[in-house]
Amino acid sequence: MSQPIDTLDRYRNPIPTFAIRIARLVVGVLFLLSGLMKGIDPLGTAYKIEEYGSAFGIPVDETLSLIGSIALSTTEFTIGACLLTGTFLFFTAWITLMLMTLFSLFAAYISIANPITDCGCFGDVIHVPNSATLAKNLILLFLSVLIFLGRDRPRVLRVKNSDVINLVLFILFFLSFADTNYRKLPALDFRPYKVGKSLAKLKGYEADSTLKQAEYDYKFVYKKGEVEMTFNIDEIEHLDSTWTYVRDASKLISAGDIAPATDFMVINRDGVEITPDVLSPDNKVMLLITPDIRKMQLKETSLLNSLNRIAREQGGSLMLLMSNDMESGEIKNIISNLNPEYSIAYLDETTAKTVIRSNPGLVVLDGSIIRRKVSFSDLYDLIEDEEFSEHPFDPLPKSYAWKEFLLTWWRSIITFVIFLILLFVDIKKRDKEKKAILQQKQ
């Protein structure tokens, strides 16, 4: 009996089914994770795209880089989810192979030319050198070929409703996820400037037991008459006055860790570094950080003055940190229009973008401890928060963290729950279809 024309068959190839499934699992998981890690920090990925553009001499507009960031991370996440769930597998196999071919060619180029040191494949979560990126991509390309050869080949193009629903939910979930991370700051902060960290330790002003110290083999050369000899520290204590010092012959055994916030330098308007004063243990300060005040999304004088008032009422102050040249006429006019009742200082642009992914973003310091970080979209609600007005420099209670989590992520949570329910229903439906086929064969 001939099979119906709309049944599916597979390409005849010698690749075992389990190998194709393992390939789908590995490639799917890596695409999923790559998309998620970029989506956790959309602005960080946008900065990486701008860095690529700068390395190749191509200026990239900030808006275009942000759109590219969300488009790239959404594509990677969706492909990973489709591979893992078998959604539109025929088309997903084609797209995966094409993307991995392009990614591998690009990785080969940056591995040779080395325009940047980190590809940014996994955001700030994992930093991968260019040579390792090339090796990873070549392995994934091989696995993508296996997936391509083992894809389903429909004789008649037929779209399942479940596939359409899954695809829409994948995209909706991820767009909601990325949008929330953009407006509300990254859900997970993988940079050094986390809430609860001491900036003084990160800067190297205070001892940090988590940092590995450099190890040296201390040796010193002394001379007596025409004779030169090398001594260690203990032996030097027993030398008499007839020995004279010649040179330091110490050798580095292992390098220590560099303090992660060495670039955090606050310069006042007179050109004097005031970082030690800002991070003083007795100082309480709100740092409103803007990489470019011309593009700052909040310029209302009343809001900034309200933050300054709240800080002063609780024994602190507000400081506006910008990365612009404060001597330029345009910046002077902006500062004049702000009519600031608070101090203004300079912070390097790259450092400003690293400290907080928002323009502007608020970082609250108690001494040098980071108590909270707030994006521009939450500043209006913040100044209306009675608890913040009364205790702006206190640690956040755990109940507040849970409340913020639910208020921030409710859209993504609902979308994800709906997807899980529909996926469960789809799996049950497929199980019934398989059982029905087996019964027919029997």
TrEMBL record:
The keyword Nucleotidyltransferase does not apply. Signal peptide: none annotated. It is a multi-pass membrane protein. Residues 19-149 form the Methylamine utilisation protein MauE domain. Pfam families: MauE (PF07291). Keywords: Membrane, Transmembrane, Transmembrane helix. InterPro entries: Methylamine_util_MauE (IPR009908). It is found in: Membrane. Its main location: membrane. The chain crosses the membrane at residues 18-37, 64-84, 91-112, 132-149, 161-178, 405-425. This is Methylamine utilisation protein MauE domain-containing protein.
